[in-house]
Every structure is written in structure tokens, then in C-alpha cells.
């Protein structure tokens, strides 16, 4: 294992490593199930504009009775202004998935940067960054996200920022620990001895070794980011111009659908969140097991 | 992580100075965190909005004169460094400013709402920890069996459910009632107006109001404790001292209770405290759903306006209490675990 940069034979080995990983992943029943569900949900979310008419989302253009129970006209009933709950749920998936993945990606970038920097440069940098990470790790993330999305202007970008900025500490801890381990390996030492600078060592040796595990954690972060998005929308901090699952549940509560017993309005968005979050969780745990059998699904 | 490294050093020069050093380091770290909370609180609610007066009045049309008055009332017309200095001085005195909507001191408002939150969150956390540890132990001990799979699936599913949604469902099913089923529990608040006098009826009334919010919180929170306990115990179960214990002729039950569980409990304890932040998050949404008159509902009321001084107050109080609890846990962990101490 003393290869320098990615030489020809390393490049040749990469596809087979991927195939090996996929074979191991296939053995994780939960992971395969989660992945299947995710593919289905993503396809549905992407096809919403093709298969449905967004005019049905416009309050001013629907003429059906409000809070209708499920029936022939509307399979999942209608909301407080007569819109189809099925249509709302379908379109709501787009916001939840978009915000969840973007926020998780942002959290991954921040976490990786902080973790790698702390571990690689050590000394004071490490002390300060570790202190900061521990601070944000303990700080109740939702409270901070609420604060951020209250003072900034409403919108999808604000929500992504609020969740991304508050959910990176776990990734940073993990990346720091992994980087510390990787750096002691002989091939990294060799690269450094041969005069490899920070950029070379980090870009060619440390990051490629750390990233797979980061990817697994990020899959889990998407799950918690989707929950966070729905919670913020439920508290009325979401983008008012878009339908999301959390916003649907907020209007269900505000307009008395709960006291009216309108279960058809309450169940679909909640089940949507639960199914997507569970799917991401299952995928993330399966990835962790594949990449690091010792973890045994310790994440979260 | 650095602690374990330092304590792994071969030369051991007395336990007392090292313990003192550890305590000092933890307390120092907590002090830095609390200072960061204060700075962050100021930055979030005074600097980031640009013009806090405009943010607070964004839902209602106001004249330039009213805005100027508002700025003067909250000291927003001062330079930022003066505002920051005043904020710190007042914070040290326990003064969190005046609420914009209630026109009363924020400290007073928070003080009124603290009791209900501590009651609800405290009860729910204790129940969730007990339930989670018990289920986690059983799942790990029967690793790979149907029981294990069943517990894990239920736990993961509950963990994937947004707390507020579960609350809404329970509210509809057991508070309002569905179909022929009548509502069994109150739908909002902490007490009824028509309670007969006396201590016992009042306690029972509050308990009755607490059932649904408490069940919601326990259902969601216990899952993570269960998963942590399960994996922590699974790690212990491969240990050699368990084989020794079995070889001594101890029954399975005694091995589990006397040897495996106490050791697996320690990492779980720290994680329980690390997850206090999520408990606080759950409290905010659950109190909103059930109109429980605590800090969570106060936060929700504040963010709707937004009442920035009040929101700043709840932010500082919630964040600092989580930090304080965590530090206590880390100190306690050291007392509990002789391996870390030695």
C-alpha cells in the first residue's frame, strides 16, 4: 500500500472497489429497501410538473369544498381551501427533498473543512476549532436555526443556511478523527517526506480516504435536515410561497383541521416525512456498516 | 478525545492534581461556551437583522417616527459597541431586556414559564431514559432475534417521525376523539379552570393535561437512547470479562445485570446529556402543539411577531442550560467511571 498518487493501476482498481462496495451494500436488506424507496420518491418528486397541473396549488383557482374527506374526486380529500391533499403532498416532496439535500451538502462541506483543517494543522488551530465544534455540538441546533431563520428574510435559501450552519459538528468530529488516523499511515508520511505540500497531501491522500465515511454521515444528516426543515416550516419559518410537508401540517393545525378530525389532511404529509427520513436513515446506516463494519450502526 | 490521550500517559503523578486539572479544564471550557452564547445572542438578534426595529414591526405598517421611538426604547440608536457593552453588563445582572409584545422584563416572562417546561421535559426525559435503556438492553441481549429486530424497527420508525406530527396525531386521536371514540385527554394548556380546591385534585389535573405531551416526547426521545444503549452493550458483549463471569458459573441474568450493563451504561450517560439539545427542540414543538405554557410556547409566541428581545432571552436561557447540564454530566461521568479517573 505504498502507492504515491493515483497511478494507472489505482485508477483501474477504482471501479472494482465500487463494485465490491455495491456487493456488500446489497447484503444490507434495510439499505436496499431504503434506496428503493428513495429512488421512487425522487422520481415522483421530479415528475410532479409533468404529471400534475400546478394550477391546483393556487388557492384562488380551486372551487372544491374545503376539508372534504377522501372520495372519488380527491383520493386524499381536500385542505382548508379546497385544494387536493394528494397534489399538495406530491409537490411538498420537492421542497423537503431539495432543502434536506442542500442543507446536508452545506453541512458536509463545513464539517469536512473544519475537521480536516483541525486535524491537519494541529496546534492552536486544532484547539480553537475543536472548542468551536464542541460548542456547536452542544448548542441546541433547532434553537439556533429558529433564531437564524427568524432574523433573516424568509425563503428556501435561509432555511438551507439555517440547517446547514447548525448541523455540521458531528461531521467535523468524525472527519477530524479519521484524518488523524489516516495521517499516521506510512504512505502519507512518505508523500510528505518526498516534499508533498499541504495541498497535495490533503487532496490526494487524506480526503480520498476520509470522504466515503463522510458520505455515509451526510446521508444520515439529510434525514435530520428533512426533519429540521419540516419543524421550521411547522413553526411558520418556511418559504411562504412554496408548499412543503411541514407547512401543510402548520396550516392543518392553524385552521382547525385537527379539531375537525380531518385525518386525511394530517396523515399524508407526516407519513411522507417519516418514510423519506426512514429511507435516508436506513441507507446511511447500511453505508456505515459497509464502510466500517466495526461501527455496527452506531451513528446518530 | 484529548483527555483520554493525556490520561493514557505512562507516568502517573497523583490523582488529585490531575482531577483538579480536569475539573478546571471542563469549567473553563463551559465558561468559554457560555461567553460564546452571549456573543452569539447579541450577534443573532442585534447585528444580523440589520435593523431590529424594522424586523419586529414587519407585519404592521409603522411611521418613521414610531420606528425612531422604538429604536430609542431598545437602545438601538446607540453605536453597536455601546449596545454590546450594555447587553453584557445587563446580562451579568440577570437583566435580559424588555419584551416588545408583553412590555415586561424578559427575565420575568421566562421565570414564569420555566416551571412548566422543567416539569414536562424533566418527566419525559426520565421516562424516555428508563424506557430506552430497558428496551436497548433487551434488544442487545437478544441480538439478531425477532425481539431485537422488532425493537430496532419500532425505534428507528419513531425516531424518523417529526415530534410535532406525532403530537398532532395523538391530539386528534385521544384529545379530540375520532369517530365514536370520545376525547380522553385535554387538548390544550396545563390546567382546567374548574378544578375543585385542594392539592390532590390540582396535581391530578396537571397530570391529566401532561399525559399526551409527555407520551409524545417519550415516544420520540426514547428511540435514540435505545439505539445507543443497544450498540454500547453489543460492544461490551464481546469482552472477555463476560466470558470469565460466565465461567464462574453466573447465570445469564446476573452476568447482564452485574457486569455488562453497568459498563455499557457509562458511554450512554454522556450521550444522553449530549442529546439534551434535541430534547429542547422537541419541547418547543410539543409545547406549541399542546399549548403547554412553557418556554417552548414562549419561543413560538416570540418568533411569530418576531419579538427579538424575548427570543434573545429564550435563546440565551435554553442554550446556557444545555451547556451547564452537559458540563455537569462530564464531571459526573468522571466520578462514575473509574477507568477515566485512573
Describe the structure.
The complex is a heterodimer of chains A (300) and B (342). Chain A contains eleven helices and no strands. Chain A has 300 residues and is mostly helical. In chain A, α2 (29-51) crosses α11, α3 packs antiparallel against α9 (198-234) and α7 runs antiparallel to α9. The longest helix of chain A is centred in the middle third of the chain and has 37 residues, at 85-121. With 342 residues, chain B is mainly α. Chain B is 76% helix and 0% strand. Chain B contains 15 helices and no strands. Chain B has helices at residues 2-7, 15-47, 52-56, 64-73, 80-92, 106-141, 146-160, 163-177, 199-237, 240-247, 252-274, 276-290, 295-304, 308-336, 338-341. In chain B, α6 (106-141) packs antiparallel against α7, α6 packs antiparallel against α11 and α10 (240-247) runs antiparallel to α11 (252-274). Chain B is globular. Residues 1-11 of chain B have low confidence and may be disordered. At the A-B interface, α4, α5, α9, α10 and α11 of A face α2, α7, α8, α9 and α12 of B. Chain B: Keywords: Cell membrane, Membrane, Transmembrane, Transmembrane helix, Transport. Chain B: InterPro entries: BPD_transp_1_N, MetI-like, MetI-like_sf.
Amino acid at each position: 500500500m505504498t502507492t504515491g498518487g493515483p497511478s494507472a493501476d489505482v485508477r483501474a482498481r477504482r471501479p472494482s472497489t465500487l463494485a465490491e462496495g455495491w456487493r456488500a451494500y446489497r447484503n444490507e436488506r434495510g439499505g436496499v429497501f431504503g434506496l428503493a424507496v428513495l429512488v421512487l420518491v425522487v422520481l415522483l418528486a421530479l415528475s410532479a410538473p409533468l404529471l400534475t397541473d400546478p394550477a391546483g396549488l393556487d388557492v384562488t383557482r380551486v372551487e372544491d369544498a374545503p376539508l372534504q374527506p377522501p372520495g372519488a374526486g380527491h383520493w386524499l380529500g381536500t385542505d382548508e381551501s379546497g385544494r387536493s391533499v394528494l397534489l399538495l403532498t406530491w409537490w411538498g416532496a420537492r421542497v423537503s427533498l431539495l432543502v434536506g439535500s442542500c442543507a446536508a451538502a452545506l453541512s458536509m462541506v463545513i464539517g469536512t473543512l473544519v475537521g480536516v483543517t483541525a486535524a491537519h494543522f494541529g496546534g492552536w488551530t486544532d484547539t480553537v476549532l475543536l472548542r468551536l465544534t464542541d460548542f456547536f455540538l452542544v448548542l441546541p441546533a433547532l434553537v439556533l436555526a429558529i433564531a437564524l431563520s427568524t432574523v433573516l428574510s424568509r425563503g428556501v435559501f435561509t432555511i438551507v443556511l439555517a440547517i446547514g450552519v447548525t448541523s455540521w459538528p458531528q461531521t467535523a468530529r468524525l472527519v477530524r478523527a479519521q484524518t488523524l488516523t489516516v495521517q499516521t499511515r506510512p504512505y502519507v508520511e512518505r508523500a510528505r517526506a518526498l516534499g508533498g505540500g499541504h495541498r497535495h497531501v490533503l487532496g490526494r491522500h487524506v480526503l480520498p480516504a476520509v470522504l466515503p465515511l463522510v458520505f455515509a454521515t451526510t446521508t444520515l444528516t439529510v434525514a435530520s435536515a428533512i426533519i429540521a426543515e419540516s419543524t421550521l416550516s411547522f413553526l411558520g419559518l418556511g418559504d411562504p410561497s412554496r408548499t412543503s410537508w411541514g407547512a401543510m401540517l402548520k396550516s392543518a393545525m392553524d385552521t382547525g383541521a385537527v379539531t375537525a378530525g380531518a385525518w386525511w389532511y394530517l396523515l399524508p404529509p407526516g407519513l411522507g416525512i417519516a418514510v423519506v427520513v426512514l429511507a435516508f436513515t436506513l441507507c446511511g446506516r447500511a453505508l456505515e456498516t459497509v464502510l466500517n463494519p466495526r461501527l455496527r450502526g452506531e451513528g446518530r | 478525545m484529548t483527555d483520554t490521550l493525556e490520561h493514557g500517559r505512562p507516568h502517573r503523578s497523583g490523582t488529585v492534581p490531575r482531577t483538579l486539572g480536569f475539573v478546571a479544564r471542563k469549567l473553563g471550557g463551559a465558561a468559554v461556551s457560555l461567553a460564546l452564547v452571549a456573543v452569539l445572542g447579541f450577534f443573532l438578534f442585534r447585528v444580523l437583522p440589520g435593523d431590529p426595529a424594522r424586523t419586529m414591526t414587519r407585519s404592521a405598517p409603522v411611521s418613521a417616527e414610531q420606528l425612531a421611538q422604538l429604536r430609542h426604547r431598545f437602545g438601538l440608536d446607540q453605536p453597536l459597541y455601546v449596545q454590546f457593552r450594555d447587553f453584557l453588563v445587563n446580562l451579568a445582572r440577570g437583566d435580559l431586556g424588555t419584551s416588545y409584545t408583553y412590555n415586561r422584563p424578559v427575565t420575568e416572562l421566562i421565570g414564569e414559564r420555566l416551571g412548566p417546561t422543567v416539569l414536562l421535559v424533566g418527566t419525559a426525559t426520565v421516562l424516555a431514559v428508563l424506557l430506552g435503556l430497558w428496551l436497548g438492553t433487551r434488544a442487545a441481549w437478544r441480538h439478531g432475534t425477532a425481539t431485537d429486530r422488532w425493537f430496532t424497527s419500532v425505534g428507528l420508525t419513531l425516531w424518523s417521525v417529526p415530534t410535532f406530527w406525532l403530537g398532532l396525531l395523538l391530539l386528534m386521536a385521544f384529545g379530540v376523539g375520532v369517530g365514536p371514540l370520545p376525547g380522553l385527554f385535554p387538548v390544550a394548556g396545563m390546567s382546567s379552570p374548574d378544578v375543585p380546591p385542594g392539592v390532590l385534585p390540582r396535581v391530578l389535573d396537571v397530570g391529566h393535561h401532561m399525559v399526551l405531551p409527555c407520551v409524545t416526547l417519550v415516544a420520540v426521545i426514547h428511540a435514540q437512547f435505545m439505539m445507543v444503549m443497544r450498540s454500547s452493550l453489543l460492544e461490551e458483549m464481546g469482552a472477555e470479562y463476560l466470558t470469565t463471569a460466565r465461567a464462574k458459573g453466573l447465570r445469564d441474568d446476573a452476568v447482564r445485570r452485574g457486569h455488562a450493563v453497568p459498563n455499557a451504561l457509562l458511554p450512554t450517560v454522556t450521550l444522553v446529556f449530549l442529546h439534551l439539545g434535541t430534547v429542547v427542540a422537541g419541547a418547543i414543538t410539543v409545547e406549541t402543539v399542546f399549548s403547554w405554557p412553557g418556554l417552548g410556547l414562549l419561543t413560538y409566541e416570540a418568533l411569530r411577531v418576531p419579538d427579538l428581545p424575548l427570543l434573545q432571552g429564550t435563546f440565551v436561557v435554553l442554550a446556557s442550560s444545555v451547556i451547564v447540564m452537559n458540563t455537569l454530566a462530564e464531571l459526573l461521568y468522571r466520578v462514575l467511571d473509574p477507568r477515566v479517573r485512573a
